[in-house]
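Hi R.,

Here's the chain you asked about this morning:
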Amino acid sequence: MKTELLTILHHNRELVGDFYFPDNDTPSPLVIFSHGYNGSGKDFILNAHLLSKHNIAAFCYDFCGGSVNARSSMETSNMTIFTEMEDLCAVLDFLKKDPRIDENNIFLFGASQGGFISALVAEQRTEDIQGLLLLYPALCIPDDWNNRFPDISDIPDSLELWGMKLGHDFFVALHGFKTSDHIGNYPREVLVMHGSEDKVVAKAYVDKLPSIYPHAVLELFPGEGHGFTKAGNQRVAQMTLDFIEKYKK
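And the predicted structure, written out as tokens:
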């Protein structure tokens, strides 16, 4: 396995991530890992190492403004769901052209808010994405904030949540946004992994995904919450590998 620190320039931003790729001469399948709120690409090192052992590349990046510890540029107060979608699309565009990558076998993996973003981007970039993996996807984000701020006049200039400052634009971008209007048309395989004890994303949000997507499977992890145990994460890594091996072209 080889690793490389990549910087991707787009929209006057610098996106930074770790590229893990097999030491071979043939183009490899790729999994793009998108982290959750105030998370990091480093959250997926376990997954990346396992995939590389099986000749599958991984890119684990930091959203611009997505964390107080992000290596990528931009203040957290300037981040919105749309800037994160731009980030992921920029990653797709950049790595599709990399000769080390099999552009016909690019998969998206998103956790929590990163799962929400990955689901949205999959709808827009269907032809570029061979499969979609969602780990406790935070599809509840628009509902949560629209319930808290039902009118635009209710939206504050800024708000601190879980140690990270959000700006006015974050909430404006979500105003009137209905997740159900923006997902469900992705036509290929989808794997949803969710903890039975998740207190952040209600199970109702993921229960309906197998009936919304043409080809989706929901795997419940008994006793796991929003953020898995070591054993749960090891199982996620293995299920991710199995999914790629099964559905790559």
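The chain has a mean pLDDT of 98.

Let me know if you need anything else.
M.
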